[in-house]
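Field guide to reading this record: the first block holds the primary sequence, the second block holds the structure written as discrete tokens, and the final block holds curator observations. Each block starts with its own label. This record concerns DUF7924 domain-containing protein, catalogued under organism Cucurbitaria berberidis CBS 394.84.

BLOCK 1 — SEQUENCE
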Amino acid sequence: MKRKQSDSLQTDPGSACSVKRLKNQYSKLDQPRTSPTPPLTEEALCSQLNHKAHQSSVRHWVETSTADCDPEMMAAPPTPRSAPSNNRGRRPRRARTPSPSKQTSPQTYRTRNLHQAGVFVDRLGYLPSVIDNEVRGILDIKSWDDQVAAATHDARIETCAARYQTDSRRNARNCSLEGDWKASLYNLLVYLSDLWPDELQAHMSEKVWNAALKPTSTPYNETEDQRETRDFHTAQTALPSFNTLDDSAINSTFAGPVPSLPPSLAPTSSSEAADPYHISTPKPDITVGLAHTAFSQQNQRQLVDHQASGSILSDPHAADMGIRFPFLVVEAKGQSVNGSLVSAENQAAVSGASMLAILQDLDCQVAWDSGSSSDRTHQSNSDVCFSIVTAGPIHTLWVHFNHQGAVYMECIRSWRTTHNVRELVHFLSKILEWGRGKYKDGIVEKLDKAPRV
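BLOCK 2 — STRUCTURE
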């Protein structure tokens, strides 16, 4: 009876024993669960020892690293901007690819290409006596020390000088490029040419000149006396037929060897452009010469016929521009990094040699018709032409002439047009006056002696 009573007291929810039992159960739930202790076997003991050794080694590595290393070095890897400065001297290696068409420098072009073609720039340092007398006569001075600007009294020349000086100061102040300087000089030459209307012609075009006029490099086995000349009178009018293999038919068609195509008619090939002695075809910024209408109708027809046959290329352009026998060219460069004075002088040198080649072809036609070369030799020694090379306000006047079997380009005088321009304008007016006068008269006299085409 007592046992049953005690059991009922223990099972009663409200009894003290049940409350104590529940409290102990909740307290066990709050405690973290722990895995049962593994049995003390040999394998368990080894795993516990390895775990403790691993923890001690990691703790030792962290302590030694924080003591020996810089915290900034442990933060993040260096970026390209924060990389150590000792790598700045190292440059990445780039694979060098060979260039088949490496551009020749202006200095090499002058000392190698122009030299092989017999064209020399600023080589003599003086003018031969014949050329010196000719140039001083053209410029209307007795000595190179004459101050011609003070003796200028022509109001039109004074107006041109004042206007061009104003343009030069504006272009220099604005650091103008090549186009502005070229336009100002072209306007000056057009204004001076209009002093003799219908006699002179000035062009500022991008038309290239005829490639047959430019000088070429002389082969090693060719002497000066055996120099080739452009002679197109022997050009064949009919082409033979090569459909038959009969030697007798071929021999009957040709009286001599098979003629080759003239160089001026052959297209420019890639091998010619890759030639280390290649001479660029002239394309001056400004060209001044005689107007086609300045000649008589008979001479006009004669010039057109010679131009078509290629015997006298009086118009140097590949396309007809209505200009004959140029005697003044301009190569203009502005105040820019790309403006190279040496390159401009090289271009003017080739243009000058081409202008002299036109006069030489005229002399060849006269000498071929008369059967004598004495007049040709005498005239070739006194032929001259001019060029102006500019680099911003710096203007240089050059003269081109033949001397001892080569073409020379020598400097006459230089000016800075922002301060001194009157002498330049005076010289230009005298050159144009010579061109429409003595220069033209000499050409007409030779044309009357030249054979008809």
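BLOCK 3 — OBSERVATIONS
Residues 341-370 form the longest helix (30 residues).
The two ends are 161 Å apart (CA to CA).
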